[in-house]
Design brief:
Blueprint (H helix, E strand, L loop, with lengths): L6 H12 L3 H5 L7 H12 L9 H11 L5 H7 L3 H14 L1 H15 L11 H9 L3 H21 L4 H5 L26
Helix pairs in contact: 1-4, 1-9, 6-7, 6-9, 7-8, 7-9, 8-9
Length: 189
């Protein structure tokens, strides 16, 4: 996993760094607009002035996206936002403790929005909550986007929902690599 991250991992990392609803997007509760996606790329392209993503990581992520693919194009290639959400939900269901570490890190540290309110660091607080070291928290946070991307890219469209216990009924004309806006997830009414 060294070198430039796969493009879908870069998309997930950019969502985490620059979208306030990153976890909701990953869990299929919110679909970003094209305007929001353009704003992410614009914000990530600005000079580093203490932004939340280290410049080395940001430059690798942007390089992956600037090869001519938009965020939406990358997501569409794996089956759309629903496929990405199913991959995240599948990971969350299979590895709940690791997902918890990841989600806590994203909400409290990666977002940069929650000030330190205790004597100990937020990273140490998360580590203590899960009974792991700070380096383990950081490692889990780094690896989860790779796992989500791998599931989204490898699993046939609808298969992750089947594995999670939902039923996948293909919508005529909608399949892998096409719009998924007509497919309902189990939590939708």
């Amino acid at each position: 996993m060294s070198g430039t991250p796969p493009v879908l991992v870069a998309v997930i990392e950019l969502l985490i760094a620059y979208h306030p609803k990153a976890l909701r997007i990953l869990l299929g509760e919110y679909e970003p607009t094209l305007l929001e996606l353009a704003e992410i790329v614009r914000n990530a392209s600005e000079p580093d002035d203490g932004a939340r993503v280290a410049s080395g990581s940001r430059s690798k992520q942007l390089a992956a996206l600037m090869r001519g693919e938009s965020i939406q194009d990358v997501v569409d290639k794996v089956g759309g936002w629903r496929q990405l959400a199913e991959a995240a939900l599948f990971y969350r269901d299979r590895f709940p403790a690791t997902w918890g570490i990841f989600a806590d890190h994203v909400m409290h540290i990666a977002s940069g929005d929650i000030p330190r309110i205790e004597e100990r660091s937020l990273l140490q607080s998360i580590a203590d909550t899960y009974g792991v070291s700070r380096s383990t928290v950081s490692e889990k946070r780094r690896l989860v986007p790779y796992a989500i991307a791998r599931y989204a890219e490898m699993a046939p469209y609808g298969e992750l929902q089947n594995l999670r216990g939902g039923t996948y009924t293909p919508v005529p004309g909608v399949g892998y690599g096409e719009s998924d806006r007509q497919m309902s997830l189990p939590f939708e009414g």
